[in-house]
Specification:
alpha+beta; Sulfite Oxidase, Chain A, domain 2; 8 helices; 18% helix; binds ligand MTE; binds molybdenum atom
Amino acid sequence: MSKGYKSDLNWSDVTPRAQWMNRRQLMLGAGALAMGGAIAGPALAKLNAVSSPYSTDAEPNSLEDITSYNNYYEFGTDKGDPARYAGGLTTDPWSIQIDGLVDSPGSYGLEDVLSGVTLEERIYRFRCVEAWSMVVPWVGFELSTLLAKVGVQSGAKYVSFETLVRPEEMPGQRRALIDWPYREGLRLDEAMHPLTILATGLYDEPMPNQNGAPIRLVVPWKYGFKSIKSIVRISLTAEQPLTSWNMINPREYGFYSNVNPEVDHPRWSQASERLVGGGLFAKRQDTLMFNGYAEEVAGLYAGQDLAKDY
Ligand SMILES: Nc1nc2c(c(=O)[nH]1)N[C@H]1C(S)=C(S)[C@@H](COP(=O)(O)O)O[C@H]1N2
Ligand SMILES: [Mo]
């Protein structure tokens, strides 16, 4: 059963699914061979990944599209900067500080975060704030799994996230473009929703650095900037946390940032989006409420005015 974005759209300009399946089957075969030897470590993308019930039927974009057109301001503001510069980021060892209103606060190595976790392949339509969209076969696991492991205390209402600060390896951080670290946040019920994942890979690859290695958030019903990359801190809080784009421009970017074709960005319409991968002939399509996941998430916002809570 597939949920989320249904396949009644014209995805002819992205990688044919058959091609991707072949590649995956190949990799699974190769994986079996390699198991006894070289392949180890927490960054394993998907040798043990199972398909998620939340995967869409939509055709994923090519690895090339997904890894060459990125937003990751720690490496610069050009869409090509992350691919150009993120290779220099050291992602092993990696640890995440988990603190605030949790039973077991501490600094957790990525191995600890991933131990006992079943990786799932979740093919989500991913929509960025500047109105382009891609379909990405993420490999990850529900954020709620990790939150359950550390024990969320009853006063917690929000989850906040921070990205690494390391200007020596992140050239964009040598400028005060953002008040580093990059920050994001979710309401606790959003964070616990099964569509909200921590991703450690895509296709058969460990997470490429430009996409947020070694571990990043993916919240498919929100604009791309909520999906914070290269996470080093997760805090459970009683108060709504600060978020980077809201700090930069509160009129343009609210805390919720749900994909909503009815609420325009002050400087552009958000009613349609450009499909990445079409080159000169890139298609546009109408944007769907909650990026196509309304059935799953609309209930989280019952009674809220989404023009006000943007
Ligand atoms: N740390 C960090 N995370 C970030 C960003 C960033 O600049 N820094 N950009 C965001 C934005 S605006 C988008 S659209 C997505 C892009 O994710 P992708 O490159 O994997 O497509 O990452 C989000 N996460
Ligand atoms: Mo974005």
